[in-house]
Amino acid sequence: MESLKNMYEEFGICDAIYEFGQKTEEKLKARFDAIDKNAEYNQLKVLHAMQKNRVCAEHFSGSTGYGYNDDGRDTLEKVYADTFHTEDALVRPQITCGTHAIALALFSNLRPGDELLSIAGKPYDTLEEVIGIRPSRGSLAEYGVSYAQVDLKEDGSFDFDGIRNAINERTKVVTIQRSKGYQTRPTLSVAKIGEAVAFVKNIRENIICMVDNCYGEFTELSEPTDVGVDMMAGSLIKNPGGGLAPVGGYIVGKKECVENAACRLTSPGLAKEVGASLGILNSFYQGFFLAPTVTAGALKGAIFAANIYEACGFPVVPNGSESRHDIIQAVELGTAEGVIAFCRGIQAAAPVDSYVTPEPWAMPGYDSDVIMAAGAFVQGSSIELSADGPIKPPYAVYFQGGLTWQHAKLGILMSLQKLYDADLVRLPL
Ligand SMILES: *Cc1c(COP(=O)(O)O)cnc(C)c1O
């Protein structure tokens, strides 16, 4: 493979790092095969849903104005519902991001006097203002919806006694965040989520169990909706958009839950009947079709990164051999210089904006400077190769995505090269 090595050389990858990468990849063969099998199953699942709903070229044409009788939009929602084995789905460009999808699910299914209970600890940062954990204009708290939280136990498992104690007659929705997001707890497997949902339903059947599925779609054979979850939400610029959806979010689940969400997104009475799809349905369909293999590429990248950096002596979460339930990889580099070098390597590997040098800056909403690397086709897309790290101890960088495994691999090798050039790492050879 002399010519492959020469290509990497063109990117500034030295012999030692190239060889280290090849050896690491060789060792991961069995795991990569398992990921491909998982993608194969999920590919068939999506294809089956598309065929069952007779997806055809007319479905891509889109609508304008009110968007009445938008068959393409309605069929796409059936494809999502069938893929995730739910009664109904809301998949819209008018859902602006993941936070919006989750907020919509919550606001539409909770009423004043109800309580929301998170049983997987503190939710994702942006949801703190949705819930009102941090006082915020328009939060659930302002509408008289209270919030309770049960943290996961030290080992990352559900605190069942705590959950039993926290559930009261006002508990209306129980929410579970599947992915660790930017925390260091483990990501929850679908099986574990299923156990928790069964436990909650056993206490009171009519509690709505909801999952924030961001970053989790297609990482396993099944999804939270296969194990009793009533409602699940996520972002289309993460896994299910397959890198092609330029915007959007989804909610799938029980008919009543989805209908509630539709009434809130548009208007009571109008619900799912309006909402022009404009010209972007093609990318939604095609992105969903590609999502299983795109997610597989991102999973391989995350596992590769874990193994590369673990072998160099850095703490990594998840570790190199753990099973995966999302596409996020954390690497604790231990120094600000390490975080910066890592992000610059990811940036330098990008198809877009590769010549840009990322710098740490004081981003709104963060309590330290943050550095971000992304050279994406879709702004802010995190199914595309991206990394970011707050410039504060323990100096960890969070890495995710890669529309192809080959690109993820280059990004990781370039990050390592930057660390190596700055004398911030010793290779284990
Ligand atoms: C990304 C993410 C969100 C929020 O999604 P945005 O599209 O950034 O608003 C919520 N929860 C988790 C676990 C996420 O990873």
TrEMBL record:
Pfam families found in the cross-reference section: Met_gamma_lyase
Q: Which InterPro entries has this protein been placed in?
A: Met_g_lyase_put, PyrdxlP-dep_Trfase, PyrdxlP-dep_Trfase_major
Record Gene3D superfamilies? Methioning gamme-lyase, C-terminal domain (3.90.1150.60), Type I PLP-dependent aspartate aminotransferase-like (Major domain) (3.40.640.10)
Tree of life domain: Bacteria
Which protein are we looking at? Answer: Methionine gamma-lyase
Question: From which organism does this entry originate?
Answer: Faecalicatena fissicatena
